[in-house]
């Protein structure tokens, strides 16, 4: 990760991003297993993915846990806000049965447990910083500190990202060398200014609002664009043809066959 090829983007600078695959398993292999669980990360590895995306937010005691929503309601058998619940209580909840009874007993992993598994599986990781309003700075700082402490220095790439620019700024202050991705539903008129201000390496955009003119402009400036969430192979093929560097997918095994090979020096 850190080191040559993962520097912050500059206009026209073509970053090789060694170790970044074409397909990133979104919340793990989340069509096959309950999202953001260790089962979903193992399933991603079994399906040949080289990288997973996960969502990290703080529990009440400040421990980063891996869960998408701000509440426990949708993906566990608990209720209430993650931020109002201690990590020890969250660890007791079931995070698998809602998806399929076969996954009963899956837990909401701590970020530390998730990173430990991913490093052992040799998977790269994109940690998305999720924060309730007012918690952005603390989340960015805590997560960056944890990643820097536990992720092996010689491990696969690790990339932080967030919709919350304050969280990215705090992560940068805490551990400047961790690469950052600016995450937006649409690029917006100020994407260049925001990338430079936050010293971001990658730009992560939603597929729904992405038009060809934007893709052409980003390609001209050699911005590494990562698009979420792409589950249709034909759409993925079109995006790759327009210069998109990688896509996030719930079905990584369905997208991998249409992904163009990376230049040898980039893989
Ligand atoms: O990081 C890309 C994507 O995961 C952002 O949207 O809602 O799935 O976290 P969401
Ligand atoms: Ca996410």
Question: In words, what does this structure look like?
Answer:
The chain is α/β, with parallel strands linked by helices and 267 residues long. Helix content is 29%, strand content 16%. It has helices spanning 38-46, 87-90, 111-121, 136-150, 165-174, 191-197, 212-220, 233-241, 252-255, and strands at 23-26, 51-58, 64-66, 124-129, 158-162, 180-184, 202-206, 225-228, 246-249. Strands 1-2-4-5-6-7-8-9 form an eight-stranded parallel beta barrel, surrounded by six helices. α8 links the parallel β8 and β9 (246-249). α3 packs parallel to α4 (136-150) and α4 packs across α5. It is globular. It starts with 22 loop residues before the first strand and ends in a 12-residue tail after the last helix. The relative contact order is 0.17. The mean pLDDT is 97. Bound molecules: SN-glycerol-3-phosphate (G3P) and calcium ion. Calcium ion binds next to β2. The site of calcium ion (CA) has 3 residues, from β2.
């Amino acid at each position: 990760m850190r080191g040559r090829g993962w520097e912050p983007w500059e206009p026209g600078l073509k970053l090789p991003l060694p170790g970044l695959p074409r397909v990133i398993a979104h919340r793990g292999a989340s069509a096959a297993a309950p999202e953001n669980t260790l089962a979903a990360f193992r399933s991603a590895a079994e399906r040949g993915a080289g990288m997973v995306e996960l969502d990290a937010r703080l529990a009440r005691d400040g421990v980063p846990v891996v869960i998408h929503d701000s509440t426990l309601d949708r993906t566990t058998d608990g209720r209430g806000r993650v931020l109002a619940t201690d990590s020890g209580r969250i660890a007791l909840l079931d995070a698998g049965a809602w998806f399929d009874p076969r996954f009963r007993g899956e837990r909401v992993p701590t970020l530390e447990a998730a990173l430990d598994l991913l490093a052992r599986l040799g998977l790269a990781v994109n940690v998305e910083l999720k924060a309730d309003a007012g918690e952005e700075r603390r989340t960015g700082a805590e997560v960056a500190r944890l990643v820097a402490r536990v992720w092996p220095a010689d491990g696969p790439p690790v990339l932080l990202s967030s919709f919350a620019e304050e969280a990215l700024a705090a992560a940068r202050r805490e551990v400047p060398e961790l690469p950052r991705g600016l995450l937006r539903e649409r690029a917006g008129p100020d994407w260049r200014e925001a990338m430079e201000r936050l010293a971001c390496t990658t730009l992560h955009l939603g597929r729904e609002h992405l038009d060809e003119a934007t893709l052409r402009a980003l390609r001209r400036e050699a911005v590494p664009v990562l698009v979420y969430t792409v589950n249709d192979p034909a759409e993925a093929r079109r995006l790759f043809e327009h210069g998109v560097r990688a896509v996030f997918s719930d079905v990584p095994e369905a997208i991998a066959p249409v992904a163009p090979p990376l230049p040898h020096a980039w893989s």
